[in-house]
Design goal:
By secondary structure, this protein is an all-alpha fold. The chain is built from 9 helices and no strands.
Length: about 450
C-alpha cells in the first residue's frame, strides 16, 4: 500500500499525541504514589491514637470495678421483679392455650385414625376383587409393549429411509443448481451478453409454454376449420346433385310432379340442418380466436412491463430503430414477423367479415328455406326463383370456404413468424417487435370485444 504525505503527517501527529498522553499518565502515577505515602503516614498516626485510647479505657474500667452500688439501684431491682412477674403470667396464659390446642389435635388424630381404618377396609375389599385380574392385565400389557416396540422399529426404519431420500434430494438439488449455472453461462455466450449478468431462463421457459399453448389452439382451430370445409363440400355436392335432379325432373314432369315428392323436402331440410351446424361451429371457432386474442393481449401487456423495466435499467432505448447487435438472419426474421402481423390484421378483418356473414346466414337462411318449401308447394314458377336463391346460398358457402382457407394460411404464417423470431434481450430488435405488438394490440382488443 502506497501512502501519501498526508497519511504520514496524520500518523506523526497521532504519535505525538500518544507521547503526550503517556507523559501525563506518568505524572499522574507519581502524584498517586505520593498521596499513597501520605495516607500510610496518617494511618500509622491513627493507629497510635487508637492504642492510647484503648489504654485509657482499660484504666477507667479498673477504677469503676472498685466503685460501690448506690442507693437508687434498689428501685431498679423492683422494676425488674415486676416485669418478670408479668412475663411469667403471660407465659402461663400461653401454656393454657397450647394445652387446649393439643387436646383438639388429639381429637382430630383419633378421627383420622378411624377414617384410615375404614379406608384400609375398603381398599382390601377392592384388592381381593382385583387380584384375579392381575394376570390378564400383565398379559395385555406385554402384548401392548410388543406392538409398541414393533411400531417403534417400523418408524425408525421409515426415518432412515426419509433421511436417505433427503440426502438424494439435496444431491439432486446441487446437481440442478450446477446445471442452471452452466446453462446461464452458455446462454450468455450464445447471446453475446456480458459474463457477469445472468440470463433469465424462467422467461424462456414461460415463453416456450406460451408458444406451445398457441400452437395447440391453432391446431384445434385448424381441425375445426377442416371439419367445416368437409361439411361445406358435402353440402355443396348434395346441393349440386339436388339441383341437377330437380332440373331434370322439372323438365320431365312439368314442375308439378317434382314438388309433389318428399325427397326434395328432405334434402332441403338436410341442407338447413347442415348450415345451422356449420354456423354453430363457426361461432365456436370465433370464440377460440377471441380467446387467443385475449391471451395475446395479456402477453403484450407483460412484454410492455418488461420493456419498461429494461428501459429503466438502461438495457436498451427507443432512439435507434435498427438493432445494434443483430445479424442478417435476425433482421430477416423480424421482417417475417412484420408480414405475419400484417396478415394477422387481415385475419381480424376477415373474422369481422365472417361474423357479418354468419349473422346474415342466421337471419336469412331459415326464412329462405321456409319460403322455398311454401312456394314450391304453391306453383312451379316461384320454385325456380327459390332454386336461384338456393344457388346464392351455395355461392356464399363457397365464399366462406375460400375465406377459411385464407385464414388458415395467414394463421400458419403468423405462427411460423412468431416461432422463428429469436428472443434477444440486449438488442433493439425487441424494441421494434414490441412496437409492432403495440400497434396490433388495439386491433386484438377491439376484435375480442
Amino acid at each position: 500500500m502506497h501512502r501519501t504525505k498526508e497519511d504520514w503527517s496524520i500518523l506523526l501527529n497521532e504519535y505525538a499525541v500518544c507521547e503526550k498522553k503517556l507523559e501525563s499518565k506518568k505524572e499522574a502515577l507519581k502524584i498517586l504514589i505520593e498521596e499513597n505515602k501520605q495516607i500510610q503516614v496518617e494511618r500509622d498516626v491513627y493507629k497510635n491514637k487508637s492504642s492510647l485510647l484503648q489504654l485509657e479505657i482499660d484504666g477507667l474500667r479498673e477504677v469503676l470495678g472498685t466503685y460501690k452500688q448506690p442507693i437508687n439501684s434498689i428501685g431498679e431491682d423492683a422494676k425488674k421483679i415486676r416485669t418478670l412477674s408479668n412475663l411469667l403470667q403471660f407465659s402461663r396464659d400461653e401454656n393454657e392455650l397450647l394445652k387446649k390446642d393439643l387436646m383438639n389435635l388429639k381429637h382430630l388424630y383419633s378421627e383420622c385414625q378411624k377414617d384410615n381404618i375404614l379406608l384400609h377396609a375398603t381398599i382390601s375389599r377392592h384388592s381381593n376383587n382385583q387380584v384375579l385380574d392381575k394376570k390378564e392385565d400383565k398379559e395385555r400389557l406385554i402384548l401392548q409393549l410388543e406392538e409398541v416396540n414393533s411400531k417403534v422399529l417400523e418408524l425408525e426404519q421409515e426415518l432412515e429411509i426419509c433421511r436417505d431420500e433427503k440426502l438424494q434430494v439435496q444431491e439432486e438439488k446441487d446437481s440442478f443448481n450446477a446445471k442452471n449455472i452452466r446453462l446461464n453461462a452458455e446462454l450468455n455466450y450464445i447471446l453475446h451478453n456480458d459474463d457477469k449478468r445472468i440470463v433469465d431462463i424462467d422467461a424462456f421457459v414461460l415463453e416456450n409454454k406460451y408458444l406451445k399453448e398457441v400452437l395447440k389452439q391453432y391446431k384445434e382451430e385448424k381441425k375445426a376449420a377442416l371439419a367445416l370445409v368437409s361439411r361445406y363440400k358435402e353440402a355443396l355436392n348434395q346441393k349440386k346433385l339436388s339441383n341437377k335432379l330437380s332440373y331434370l325432373q322439372m323438365l320431365e314432369n312439368q314442375h308439378e310432379s317434382y314438388f309433389s315428392s318428399n325427397s326434395t323436402m328432405q334434402q332441403l331440410q338436410r341442407v338447413n340442418k347442415s348450415l345451422t351446424e356449420i354456423i354453430a361451429e363457426k361461432e365456436l371457432a370465433l370464440k377460440h380466436q377471441r380467446n387467443t386474442n385475449r391471451v395475446l393481449g395479456a402477453r403484450v401487456s407483460e412484454l410492455e412491463k418488461k420493456l419498461r423495466t429494461m428501459e429503466v435499467s438502461g438495457l436498451w432505448s427507443h432512439d435507434q430503430r435498427r438493432p445494434r447487435y443483430t445479424s442478417e438472419d435476425e433482421y430477416l426474421n423480424f421482417n417475417k414477423f412484420d408480414s405475419g402481423c400484417s396478415k394477422y390484421e387481415n385475419l381480424a378483418c376477415e373474422e369481422k367479415i365472417n361474423d357479418e356473414i354468419t349473422n346474415a346466414l342466421n337471419d336469412k337462411i331459415p326464412n329462405v328455406l321456409t319460403r322455398v318449401v311454401s312456394d314450391a308447394k304453391d306453383n312451379s314458377e316461384i320454385s325456380q326463383n327459390n332454386i336461384s336463391r338456393g344457388t346464392c346460398v351455395c355461392d356464399t358457402a363457397s365464399e366462406l370456404y375460400e375465406s377459411i382457407n385464407e385464414v388458415e394460411s395467414s394463421e400458419k404464417d403468423f405462427a411460423s413468424a412468431i416461432i422463428e423470431i429469436p428472443f434477444t434481450r440486449n438488442s433493439t430488435l425487441n424494441n421494434n417487435i414490441f412496437s409492432m405488438y403495440d400497434e396490433k394490440k388495439l386491433n386484438c382488443n377491439s376484435f375480442s370485444r
